[in-house]
């Protein structure tokens, strides 16, 4: 070992020791913060599925590759980071000796070939990612960047470090080539040989370059160890755990569909026995999120995919799912010293720590502890109320997140406390909640008018209890029973089922609201009250039947989602289908035959709770395709897709109980969607949700396009094709603005 190698060895191991010590300390701090969260025992079951899903999403990049260029580039960088870590390890042998290398595999030509090309593709990929970050920088002229609000220096720092490490790998190999100490032939390492052709024959250059590579790598480790909220770096470690512990590892997208039940100390809350002074009602303090919630916040990569797809953010609302998560993350870590010292408020608002426990704390941590979780800037709030109430719960953020953060659950948990304990929510929503409690529907319509939609039909609609047997229970829903446009959809579905010979029955006045708007706004008490009543009614209607024969068809995706995904939490196990699924089956089996093609071009708007939340994309399109083609049979025909469709469909603005809240900030979401629909040139905008029908009709009306563009349910489109003579009576054309 020469003098150069002595110096490089000492320096390499010294900086490594410092970096490792700081990293261990940082990991311990992060674990301590995450453990501050509430228990969640549901995250540990089915470890086989969890492991399989985690490996598929990380090694296979199944979610990242939805954005093909970025996903492919990130895959090479990720694989390069993992595999080429061996080259960083190899650098420790090279600082000791210019001829040093990894034991066992270091002499294999195959190892040299794989690492060579991973490094080459890694350099290309990181340059692509840097270019994408620069092209989408927040300061660029025009448009909103998905990186707005991200800590840009951290992104550039991480990408720069990766690029520098990869380059230094070729410099080390180049010096080995120049000094004739390289193990691999030209075919296995062409770029390394090319670099070696221009470097001098300087034997110490290998050890010096190896030291530089180690210093660069350990500088990165030191920086992230000193910045535990640096998600853009820490996600490469935390993502494995966050994906493994996702809510439903077997689902296509975990965190969509059903909401997490309201829990206290890890157990579902029973409102008959719950006590607000002993049981946690929603989330009022950051430590009241579950430990998985705190892991979510820590894992955020700041990539902004959620932000780019959020309907609120895209229409100038203050909500960005990314910024909400980052605010909660930064607050959690800033408040952590106070919490770890024993501080915190009990459920009555009393301080749990003694003065002695808090005496040594930094004033900044104490100040952070006094900030309300929900509050305006003047109040020092972490999350502004306008941010909290702008969410439509459309799930676009959850759909796009590459590390499975469950934004919607966290937002609803905060809403629950605001509604149930603080009684703080948009005033106009109060009317809706009172109507749900007193009338069993959000419009406040008399219960004895639930069956009025059946009047005038040329066939009898059977009621449960009046018929001995039926295949499907037709869940009409509040909109389908009381809202004029939705009643036309209800009549169309009933007519088509009757035409196809499907035996069905309705509950009539025995039906009440599914509870979706109450649950999404945060009033879990009203939801459970309504849901338990419905579960009891439905169980009685299906008494004696096994689950596979307890079939329900619903026209409202919100009812469909609630009955199918959430009633199981309350003892209601049913097979629930959306009406477009049943209609697609009836057409495919020849029980409904379209005869009159629908012309003028049709575009389809995917409802969030049908598409993204429940992955039902094909059936509505199959129905429309058959109606457009008429007797020619199913086909694409005049079905024109909007740019944002299927899992990237843009929300109508009605979800999350926003249907009953005024949209006062920014551009109206429904107008944004209507403009996109109109731009397709289609004369018919088909929908599969009564909320979407209302919102898009209002948008068309607002644009003054009621004479040119019609918003109509998929069922009505099919009815016009199957029974053209009934078309005039089923129109849902938006009224002309006047």
Automatic annotation (TrEMBL):
Pfam families assigned to the protein according to its UniProt record, in alphabetical order: CCG (PF02754), Fer4_9 (PF13187)
One example GO MF annotation: oxidoreductase activity
Ranges annotated as spanning the membrane: 6-28, 64-88, 108-132, 153-172, 184-202, 214-234
Keyword Iron-sulfur listed: yes
Alphabetically ordered keywords of this record: 4Fe-4S, Iron, Iron-sulfur, Membrane, Metal-binding, Oxidoreductase, Transmembrane, Transmembrane helix
GO CC entries: plasma membrane
The 4Fe-4S ferredoxin-type domain, residue ranges: 291-322, 379-411
UniProt cross-references to InterPro entries, sorted A to Z: 4Fe4S_Fe-S-bd, 4Fe4S_Fe_S_CS, Cys_rich_dom, HdrC_iron-sulfur_subunit, Helical_ferredxn
PANTHER family reported in the protein's UniProt record: IRON-SULFUR-BINDING OXIDOREDUCTASE FADF-RELATED (PTHR43255:SF1), IRON-SULFUR-BINDING OXIDOREDUCTASE FADF-RELATED-RELATED (PTHR43255)
Protein name stated in the entry: Fe-S oxidoreductase
Organism: Micromonospora peucetia
């Amino acid at each position: 070992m020469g003098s150069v190698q002595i110096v490089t060895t000492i320096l390499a191991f010294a900086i490594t020791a410092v970096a490792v010590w700081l990293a261990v300390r940082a990991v311990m701090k992060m674990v301590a913060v995450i453990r501050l969260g509430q228990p969640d025992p549901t995250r540990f079951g089915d470890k086989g599925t969890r492991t399989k899903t985690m490996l598929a999403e990380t090694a296979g990049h199944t979610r990242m590759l939805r954005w093909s260029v970025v996903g492919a580039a990130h895959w090479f960088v990720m694989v390069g980071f993992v595999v080429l870590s061996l080259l960083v390890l190899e650098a420790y042998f090279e600082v000791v000796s210019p001829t040093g290398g990894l034991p066992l595999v270091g002499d294999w030509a195959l190892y040299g070939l794989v690492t060579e090309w991973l490094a080459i593709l890694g350099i290309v990929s990181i340059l692509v990612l840097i270019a994408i970050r620069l092209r989408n920088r927040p300061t660029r002229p025009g448009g909103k960047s998905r990186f707005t609000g991200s800590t840009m220096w951290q992104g550039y720092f991480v990408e720069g470090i990766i690029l520098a490490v990869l380059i230094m790998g070729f410099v080390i190999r180049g010096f080995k080539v120049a000094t004739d100490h390289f193990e691999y032939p030209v075919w296995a390492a062409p770029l390394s040989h090319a670099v070696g052709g221009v470097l001098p024959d300087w034997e110490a250059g290998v050890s010096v370059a190896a030291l530089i590579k180690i210093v660069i790598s350990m500088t990165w480790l030191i920086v992230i160890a000193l910045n535990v909220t640096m998600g853009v770096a820490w996600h490469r470690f935390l993502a494995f755990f966050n994906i493994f512990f996702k809510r439903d590892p077997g689902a296509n997208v975990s965190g969509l569909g059903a909401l997490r039940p309201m829990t206290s100390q890890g157990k579902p809350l029973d409102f008959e026995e719950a006590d607000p002074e002993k049981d946690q009602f929603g989330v009022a303090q950051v430590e009241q999120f579950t430990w998985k919630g705190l892991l979510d916040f820590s894992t955020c990569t700041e990539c902004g995919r959620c932000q780019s797809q959020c309907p609120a953010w895209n229409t100038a609302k203050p909500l960005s799912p990314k910024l909400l998560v980052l605010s909660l993350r930064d607050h959690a870590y800033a408040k952590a010293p106070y919490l770890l010292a024993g501080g915190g408020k009990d459920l009555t608002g009393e301080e749990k720590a003694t003065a002695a426990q808090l005496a040594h704390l930094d004033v900044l941590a104490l100040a952070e502890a006094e900030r309300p979780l929900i509050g305006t800037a003047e109040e020092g709030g972490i999350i502004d109320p306008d941010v909290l109430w702008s969410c439509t719960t459309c799930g676009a953020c959850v759909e796009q997140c590459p590390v499975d953060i469950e934004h919607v659950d966290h937002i609803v948990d905060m809403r629950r406390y605001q509604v149930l304990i603080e009684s703080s929510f948009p005033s106009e929503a109060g009317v809706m909640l009172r109507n749900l409690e007193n009338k069993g529907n959000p419009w406040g319509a008399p219960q004895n008018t639930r069956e009025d939609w059946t009047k005038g039909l040329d066939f009898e609609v059977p009621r449960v209890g009046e018929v001995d047997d039926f295949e499907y229970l037709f869940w009409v829903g509040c909109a389908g029973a009381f809202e004029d446009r939705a009643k036309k959809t209800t009549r169309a579905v009933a007519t088509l089922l009757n035409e196809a010979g499907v035996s069905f029955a309705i509950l009539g006045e025995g039906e009440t609201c599914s509870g979706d708007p109450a649950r999404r706004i945060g009033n879990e008490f009203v939801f459970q009250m309504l849901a338990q009543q419905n579960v009891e009614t439905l169980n009685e209607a299906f008494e004696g039947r096994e689950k596979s024969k307890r079939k329900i068809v619903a026209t409202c995706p919100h009812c469909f989602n609630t009955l199918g995904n959430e009633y199981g939490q309350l003892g209601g196990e049913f097979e629930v289908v959306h009406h477009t699924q049943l209609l697609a089956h009836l057409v495919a089996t020849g029980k409904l035959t379209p005869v009159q093609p629908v012309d003028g071009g049709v575009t389809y708007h995917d409802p969030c709770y049908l598409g993204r939340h429940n992955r039902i994309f094909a059936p509505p399109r199959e129905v429309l395709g058959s109606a457009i083609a008429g007797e020619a049979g199913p086909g694409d025909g005049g079905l024109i897709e909007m740019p944002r469709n299927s899992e990237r469909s843009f929300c109508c603005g009605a979800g999350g109980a926003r249907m009953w809240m005024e949209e006062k900030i920014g551009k109206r979401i429904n107008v944004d969607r209507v403009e996109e629909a109109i731009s397709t040139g289609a004369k018919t905008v088909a929908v599969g949700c009564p909320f979407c029908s209302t919102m898009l009709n209002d948008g068309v009306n607002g644009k003054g396009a009621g004479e040119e563009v019609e918003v109509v349910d998929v069922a009505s489109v099919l009815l016009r094709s199957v029974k053209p003579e009934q078309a005039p009576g089923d129109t849902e054309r938006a009224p002309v603005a006047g």
